[in-house]
Amino acid sequence: MKETLQEIALYYKNQGAPSDQSALLSCLREAQQACGGMLDAAAQQEIGAVLGVKPTYLQAVAKRISDLKLSGASHTLTVCQGVNCSREGKSIHRYLEDELGAKPGKTFLGGKWMYQTVGCQRACRTAPNVRVDGQLMTGMTLERLKEILQKG
Ligand code: FES
């Protein structure tokens, strides 16, 4: 993911970002898409390093743009809520929402993780699927997820 974000940021740097606001916004949108719908603190750091700006600058820019979602969380957990992943991943959903109190679009575990949900990722055969910082992780188990959340 780090390399992908660097590639995206470098491309838009060559297009004039960050001084060219249009190039900067395109950069943030593309990076957000690559990260699964939200730019967490690590992603902001990567992009900022390439563009030569602080993450706080990127957050200030994003605040004015409704389709940009930047969070202060270190990591983003995106859980597929399609039919197959919901059926196969009941224990994961229960753990996140009932035990940890995670709510879509909000941080959890002390602000360390951002929780979001998405529809079917077209990888139903390997359900349940989640994305960790935008990276697809198939056949997720509750035990594996707990390990990931602890390490994060
Ligand atoms: S339901 Fe999750 S990938 Fe299809």
TrEMBL record:
Keywords: Iron, Iron-sulfur, Metal-binding
Presence of keyword Iron-sulfur: yes
GO molecular function: iron-sulfur cluster binding; metal ion binding; NADH dehydrogenase activity
Protein's name in the database: NADH-quinone oxidoreductase subunit E
